[in-house]
């Protein structure tokens, strides 16, 4: 589909000239024509539909994409404290992208540290109790062996020693749990700092300072420059000339003198039902730091074989909600054709369906037409003549006001 600006640029002067020619003709008295009794004939300019080499017009619009995209979220929920990168910014592995508010977890960390200190403080006392109980048991063991104390006395000191040992084991278990809780809280705090896992470019940024995020939020996407390629939809009439390895020149907007070379790497075997074209992937031969994912580029395939087909001037196309339309004239009546466009350049377009060679196509005045309009084919006025007629009309209008 052509842009409205492209069509307006090609048809503006011709339409003005045709309208003025029609208006000035109204001032001349002539015999009534068949059209004058009914619908007013609209002046148009026509040109015959011709065939040409479809592959001579192989300029297509593509999009830079990346095969390697890393989506980055948060392992914790919380409020965003800072965002340290912008979309399109190059980042390196480990670079900080954003930070969440650590206030709650820092309070939890302080509580964990305090509890650990309390439990660790209990351990030396229990260790001293155990050492004393162990010493007492050993002393009573000697006395028992010499028959100085009873077995009941010895068992009493054995129980004290066993109880003291169990208390130390309990202390150590509690301390281990405290240390684990402390480590978990510290890890959660560390995870509040969101970093890039790869070198690349920020392709999307879905977070702002002050927002609440969850573990399901996708905050950033990072693409790796080495994985960039171009995706382009190739019309049906051209796809037969495209093979894996076909060379292509890729041009960024505003940098037509610095074409980047690439080669076709993948061709979809199925037509896209929306664009009515075949998706093709082009690998970029040499990476360029100015190329970013999402950029629109111009693609031109090199060395394609000649292929005959219908080519029309772009100014003949009228874009509507129904699609691309043109008008063909037959017996002074304009007939609307809904067409499918293929490749398009600055002044010509390939028609893939809806027209046949030899038809007379309206190339000026079509914006005033509807299907079945009566038309009058005229020659287009040159720019000087158009300006002169406009000035005459202005002077006539001013004279009428006086």
From TrEMBL:
<dbReference type="InterPro" id="IPR006143">
    <property type="entry name" value="RND_pump_MFP"/>
</dbReference>
<feature type="domain" description="CusB-like beta-barrel">
    <location>
        <begin position="230"/>
        <end position="303"/>
    </location>
</feature>
<dbReference type="InterPro" id="IPR058792">
    <property type="entry name" value="Beta-barrel_RND_2"/>
</dbReference>
<dbReference type="Pfam" id="PF25989">
    <property type="entry name" value="YknX_C"/>
</dbReference>
<comment type="similarity">
    <text>Belongs to the membrane fusion protein (MFP) (TC 8.A.1) family.</text>
</comment>
<feature type="domain" description="CzcB-like barrel-sandwich hybrid">
    <location>
        <begin position="72"/>
        <end position="222"/>
    </location>
</feature>
<feature type="domain" description="YknX-like C-terminal permuted SH3-like">
    <location>
        <begin position="311"/>
        <end position="377"/>
    </location>
</feature>
<dbReference type="InterPro" id="IPR058637">
    <property type="entry name" value="YknX-like_C"/>
</dbReference>
<dbReference type="GO" id="GO:1990281">
    <property type="term" value="C:efflux pump complex"/>
</dbReference>
<protein>
    <submittedName>
        <fullName>Multidrug resistance protein MdtA</fullName>
    </submittedName>
</protein>
<dbReference type="Pfam" id="PF25973">
    <property type="entry name" value="BSH_CzcB"/>
</dbReference>
<dbReference type="Pfam" id="PF25954">
    <property type="entry name" value="Beta-barrel_RND_2"/>
</dbReference>
<dbReference type="GO" id="GO:0015562">
    <property type="term" value="F:efflux transmembrane transporter activity"/>
</dbReference>
<dbReference type="InterPro" id="IPR058647">
    <property type="entry name" value="BSH_CzcB-like"/>
</dbReference>
């Amino acid at each position: 589909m052509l842009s409205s600006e492209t069509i307006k640029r090609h048809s503006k002067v011709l339409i003005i000239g045709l309208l003025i020619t029609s208006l000035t003709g109204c001032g001349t008295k002539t015999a009534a024509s068949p059209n004058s009794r009914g619908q007013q004939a609209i002046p148009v300019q026509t040109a015959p539909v011709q065939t040409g080499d479809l592959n001579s017009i192989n300029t297509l619009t593509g999009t830079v994409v990346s095969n390697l995209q890393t989506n980055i979220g948060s392992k914790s929920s919380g409020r965003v404290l800072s965002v340290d990168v912008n979309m399109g910014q190059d980042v390196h592995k480990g670079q900080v992208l954003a930070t969440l508010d650590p206030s709650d977890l820092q309070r939890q960390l302080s509580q964990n540290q305090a509890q650990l200190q309390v439990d660790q403080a209990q351990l030396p006392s229990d260790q001293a109790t155990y050492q004393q109980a162990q010493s007492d048991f050993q002393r009573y063991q000697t006395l028992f062996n010499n028959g100085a104390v009873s077995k009941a006395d010895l068992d009493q000191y054995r129980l004290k020693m066993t109880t003291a040992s169990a208390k130390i084991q309990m202390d150590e278990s509690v301390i281990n749990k405290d240390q684990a809780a402390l480590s978990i809280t510290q890890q959660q705090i560390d995870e509040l700092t969101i970093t890039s896992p790869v070198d690349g470019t920020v392709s999307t940024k879905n977070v702002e300072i002050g927002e609440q995020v969850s573990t399901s939020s996708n905050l950033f996407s990072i693409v790796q420059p080495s994985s960039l390629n171009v995706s382009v939809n190739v019309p049906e009439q051209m796809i037969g000339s495209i093979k894996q390895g076909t060379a292509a020149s890729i041009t960024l907007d505003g940098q037509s003198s610095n074409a980047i070379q690439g080669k076709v790497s993948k061709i979809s075997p199925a037509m896209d039902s929306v664009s009515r074209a075949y998706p093709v992937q082009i690998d970029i031969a040499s990476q360029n730091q100015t190329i970013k994912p999402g950029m629109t580029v111009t693609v031109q395939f090199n060395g394609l074989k000649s292929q005959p087909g219908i080519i029309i001037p772009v100014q003949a196309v009228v874009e509507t909600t129904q699609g691309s339309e043109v008008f063909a004239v037959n017996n002074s009546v304009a007939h609307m054709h809904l067409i499918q466009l293929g490749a398009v350049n600055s002044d010509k377009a390939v028609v893939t369906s809806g027209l046949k060679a030899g038809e007379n196509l309206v190339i000026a005045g079509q914006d005033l037409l509807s299907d079945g309009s009566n038309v009058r084919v005229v020659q287009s006025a040159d720019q000087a003549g158009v300006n002169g007629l406009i000035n005459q009309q202005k002077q006539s209008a001013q004279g009428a006001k006086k």
